[in-house]
Amino acid sequence: MSKIKTHKATSKRFKLTGSGKLMRTRQGKSHLRRKKSARVKALLMEMVSVEGKRIRKRIRRLAPYLTHK
Fold first, then answer.
1. Dihedral (C-alpha) 9, 13, 16, 22: value to the nearest 10 degrees?
2. With 90 as the cut, is the pLDDT of residue 32 above it?
3. CATH number for the domain harbouring residue 44
């Protein structure tokens, strides 16, 4: 049986922690950063855990080989 292909955008946006939690990056940090305060920019750098069983299942389907990073 052949390997399942990983959706590359999904593998770049999501990480798996050591305890198995799925973490995602925040939106809105790619452009228009001059307007934003230093506090907001610092908050955008943090990763947030993914809530919802359906979303986690969808991500797992898109990136089946997602590993701890």
1. -110
2. no
3. 4.10.410.60
